[in-house]
Amino acid sequence: MINNNRIKQVICGLLLTLGCITASAQPNSKLCLRVGLIADPQYANKDDHGLRLYRNSLEKANEAVATLNKQNVNLTMVVGDLVDQGTKDLKPILTNLAKLDSASYNLLGNHDFVEVTDKRNLYQAFNMPAPYYTVDKNNWKFILLNTNELSNYAAEEGSSEFTAWENLRDSLKSAGRKNAAPWNGGIGAVQIQWLKNQLNEAQQTGQKVIIFTHHPLLPENGLETLNNREILSIIQQYPNVKAVISGHHHEGNFAVFEGVPLITLEGMVETKENAFGVMDIYEDYIEIKGYGRLKNRELKF
């Protein structure tokens, strides 16, 4: 027997891959993309610690994948901390995410570097094309930053990145900032210039932009990117940046900077429920449907 609902889902997915379609709920707006969102699975084959239910992340990831496939997402963004203690537990979580019907794109988080020796090439183990990169889809540019670049855990001692991290850490401490903590990181000068180049290119070609990071840029609660203010000063120059989506702070959070919403996704590991979402991107707003404890949001441009 033919499943009419499944046929409708497939047709909807095909239309989304071809471009924007009219959304039935918003007849005057266009649905351009459907994106899966996952933050901080932090899987590990070890006992729970408080509400961090490490082993349960495999089952949660399976549930998320099944739902995202049913929702015919065009792609999925995983914003870091796939594992709790580096690559020794990486294979099972990557195997589960590989069941997605569409492409998934990973970022590294601070926990992904634990006990890793080859830090410069760690991104390859996570099936990433580079430590930071872009994804272009349907006139949207997704910019995935590496906010671990300047940090105690990711930069090799004696490298220019390590020196830059030490200088940044010292200046933050002198200023009384709370984010000069060993689990936070920042981005270096080369990556800053690369970000500017990507934003300039997107502006010239008429692309709208969403930036993804592991460490949030706001609010300033001690968990934000080390040089968040430098990054924000760049973002405010580009009105085509429509949102910033991050992880790291498992409770989730939200802020607005110069009209740009900054969303911190609730972490999958630290809940008895699940936590993942589906983001529908329209021409003039974003709608996030949360599953488990991940919050629903509607954000107009």
From TrEMBL:
Return the PROSITE patterns for the record. PROKAR_LIPOPROTEIN (PS51257)
Q: Which GO terms describe its molecular function?
A: 2',3'-cyclic-nucleotide 2'-phosphodiesterase activity; ADP-ribose diphosphatase activity; CDP-glycerol diphosphatase activity; manganese ion binding
Q: Which InterPro entries match?
A: Calcineurin-like_PHP, Metallo-depent_PP-like
Entry-linked PANTHER family: MANGANESE-DEPENDENT ADP-RIBOSE_CDP-ALCOHOL DIPHOSPHATASE, PTHR16509
Could you tell me what this protein is called? Calcineurin-like phosphoesterase
Q: Give the originating organism.
A: Sphingobacterium psychroaquaticum
